[in-house]
Design brief:
Layout (H helix, E strand, L loop, with lengths): L4 E4 L6 E9 L3 H9 L1 H5 L5 E6 L5 E10 L10 E8 L1 H13 L3 E2 L4 H8 L5 H12 L3 H11 L2 H25 L11 H19 L2 H8 L1 E7 L5 H9 L17 E7 L2 E7 L9 H16 L2 E7 L9 H8 L3 E6 L18 E3 L8 H14 L13 H22 L4 H19 L5 H8 L7
Parallel strand pairs: 1-6, 7-9, 7-10, 10-11, 11-12
Antiparallel strand pairs: 1-2, 2-5, 3-4, 4-5, 8-9
Length: 450
């Protein structure tokens, strides 16, 4: 008989309710002993009951739900207790459950148990953590699709297509003299080429993962006093960065998170770019250059009441090949005679950050620029994780090698063996693997109680 695990599924602290979850073979007996026979008689229904300790004391009046085996999240008998949100009540109930033979759950153990019992494939299990950690509407939508089994269904489709190719090749190998059609190399190679192309498209979506969960790294850059910190404050809706008329006030970069439309942005305010002899300011500028190199999206703030800015060559090159929105600031002042359009090939918006003019259009243009530059998957598009991408990359290599071998008249047995390796890589995506170390590492990133 396996262990029965228990954990709080809600954060520590005072609240209206606190949820405690229990999963394992002791749950039917616990339901009867702690909560009363009516709970087991009404599975999957919330009952208002008293929780009684081993000593017979009532620890809380709570809502409890009993889930029988195979009809629960984990596939095991489960209990969920909605207690009053006093940490002392949670502690007393948990200690009583431990005294009755339960043990504390490890990180992700409930979801891992669900995976091992076939309630979820591995891509769905990963989606649980993604759903909890999502920081934008886009990330939530992607996690919901994955939790619904979208990646699993896609992998089953790709697996069926690959199995058809393997079956055709192995039929010729096993029965070369039977009444079979002549071996058609073009058929398998054409099907394998299509598979390889689809895998390449799936692999490319893995770069969305960091953008959605960490936020699109949006660096605010420009010359000193152009209005970079003012722009951060305006987008945040609060005075988060120090604003001063003295050039060089920002010496280090400052990071904040905001939502614009359905996009999560990680805003980075940086030191102004200029020639300077001050050592501390030079260090700040060096950090700005690094932030520009690492950015996903750049907001280039320029002061239209001053001459056009001159950026270092490394920055100019980055601006020409990168996602950029030019923010022309200080439109409340007369334009400088020497000011010219900066980066004319990129979208721009005109604002006065001191007057608050153009802020609504600024947010709209940021969202439009992100949408036009495909910074997130479409509403019906799949997104694979780095782990998925690594497995699919190995599968693609095996498929391409098999396709090349068939085209060059190499033995069909070698191609079939390579395609079997690709099939095993497909299995890694949805969890048809026997690799405890990989599972330990994956579920260690989950929160306790999930």
């Amino acid at each position: 008989m396996g262990d029965t695990i228990v954990a709080s599924a809600t954060p520590y602290g005072e609240s209206a309710l606190a949820v405690v979850r229990i999963s394992g073979p002791l749950c039917p007996q616990l339901a009867a002993d702690c909560l009363g026979p009516e709970l087991s008689a009404n599975p999957r229904k919330a009952c208002l009951v008293n929780y009684k300790s081993l000593t017979g004391n009532i620890l809380d009046n709570c809502l409890a739900v009993y889930f029988p085996e195979k009809r629960s999240y984990t596939g095991e008998p489960c209990l969920e207790l909605s207690l009053h949100g006093n940490p002392l009540i949670v502690q007393n109930v948990t200690e009583d459950l431990l005294a009755r033979g339960c043990r504390m759950a490890e990180a992700g153990e409930f979801t891992r148990t669900a995976f091992l019992n076939g309630k979820l494939d591995l891509s769905q299990a990963e989606a649980v953590a993604d759903l909890i950690s999502a920081r934008s509407d886009q990330a939530l939508q992607v996690a919901r699709r994955q939790l619904d089994g979208a990646i699993g269904r896609k992998m089953l489709e790709l697996t069926d297509r690959l199995l058809s190719v393997i079956a055709a090749i192995e039929a010729y190998i096993d029965f070369p003299e039977e009444d079979l059609p002549p071996e058609d190399q073009a058929g398998p190679t054409s099907a394998l080429a299509a598979l390889s192309c689809e895998l390449g498209e799936l692999i490319e979506t893995s770069h969305y993962k960091t953008l959605l969960h960490e936020g699109i790294r949006t660096v605010i850059m420009g010359e000193p006093n152009a209005g970079k910190s003012s722009l951060l404050n305006a987008l945040m809706g609060e005075d988060r960065a120090i604003v001063s008329a003295e050039p060089g006030t920002t010496r280090d970069f400052l990071t904040e998170r905001i939502m614009i439309g359905s996009y999560g942005l990680q805003l980075v305010d940086t030191a102004g770019l200029r020639e300077t002899s001050a050592d501390i300011e030079r260090q700040g500028i060096a950090k700005t250059l690094q932030q520009v190199q690492d950015a996903d999206f750049l907001l280039v703030v320029v002061d239209q009441s001053s001459p056009a800015p001159h950026f270092p060559d490394v920055v100019e090159k980055r601006l020409l090949e990168h996602r950029v929105l030019v923010v022309e600031n200080k439109i409340d002042l007369p334009p400088h005679p020497a000011f010219i359009d900066v980066l004319p090939g990129h979208p721009r918006v005109r604002v006065s950050l001191t007057e608050g003019a153009g802020l609504s259009e600024l947010r709209t243009r940021i969202q439009q620029t992100l949408e036009s530059d495909r910074m997130a998957p479409g509403p019906d598009e799949l997104m694979v994780s780095t782990r998925h991408a690594n497995a699919l990359r190995q599968a693609r290599i095996a498929i391409d090698e098999a396709r090349t071998g068939l085209r060059d008249d190499c033995p069909a047995e070698l191609a079939a063996a390579g395609l079997r390796d690709a099939l095993a890589c497909f299995g890694e995506v949805i969890g048809k693997v026997d690799n405890e170390d990989m599972l330990d590492k994956l579920f260690a990133a989950f929160c306790i109680g999930k």
